[in-house]
C-alpha cells in the first residue's frame, strides 16, 4: 500500500468563490502511480470548504446565492465581536460544507459521476491563496 501526501495552491476571490480542482487531483493520482484507492481532499483553515457539484456557470451562481440566503453576510455573528474581522459569515458557511472529502478512484480515475466535479469553496471576506492537501492511499 502507498500513502502520498500532496498539495496544490489556488488563488481565490473569496466571497463564495467556486473553483474546480478535479483535474488537479487526477494529475496527482497519476503522478503518484497509484491505480486504485482513495483520495482525501482537505482544506486547512476555517473559511474554506470542499464538496462535489456539477461545475457549471449556473451552479457557480447558485452556491453564493444559496449561502447568502441562509447565512447572510450582513447578519450579526458573535465571531465578529471576538476578532472584529467581519468574516463571521465565512466561518459559518465553511462549517456548513466542511473541510474535507474522500473520493475513491479506480484505474487511476476518480469514481465521480458524469456531471460531478470536486470543488474548492472559498467563503472568506477577501481574496486568498488557498492550499489544499490531498492524501492518496492505494495500490
TrEMBL record:
<protein>
    <recommendedName>
        <fullName>Secondary thiamine-phosphate synthase enzyme</fullName>
    </recommendedName>
</protein>
<dbReference type="InterPro" id="IPR001602">
    <property type="entry name" value="UPF0047_YjbQ-like"/>
</dbReference>
<dbReference type="InterPro" id="IPR035917">
    <property type="entry name" value="YjbQ-like_sf"/>
</dbReference>
<comment type="similarity">
    <text>Belongs to the UPF0047 family.</text>
</comment>
<dbReference type="Pfam" id="PF01894">
    <property type="entry name" value="YjbQ"/>
</dbReference>
Amino acid at each position: 500500500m502507498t500513502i502520498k501526501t500532496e498539495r496544490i495552491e489556488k488563488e481565490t476571490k473569496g466571497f463564495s468563490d467556486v473553483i474546480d480542482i478535479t483535474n488537479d487531483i487526477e494529475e496527482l493520482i497519476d503522478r503518484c502511480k497509484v491505480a486504485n484507492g482513495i483520495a482525501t481532499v482537505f482544506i486547512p483553515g476555517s473559511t474554506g470548504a470542499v464538496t462535489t457539484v456539477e461545475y457549471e456557470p449556473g451552479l457557480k451562481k447558485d452556491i453564493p446565492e444559496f449561502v447568502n440566503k441562509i447565512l447572510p453576510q450582513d447578519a450579526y455573528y458573535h465571531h465578529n465581536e471576538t476578532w472584529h474581522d467581519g468574516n463571521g459569515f465565512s466561518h459559518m458557511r465553511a462549517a456548513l460544507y466542511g473541510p474535507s472529502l474522500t473520493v475513491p478512484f479506480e484505474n487511476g480515475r476518480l469514481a465521480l459521476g458524469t456531471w460531478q466535479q470536486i470543488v474548492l469553496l472559498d467563503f472568506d471576506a477577501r481574496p486568498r491563496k488557498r492550499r489544499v492537501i490531498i492524501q492518496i492511499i492505494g495500490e
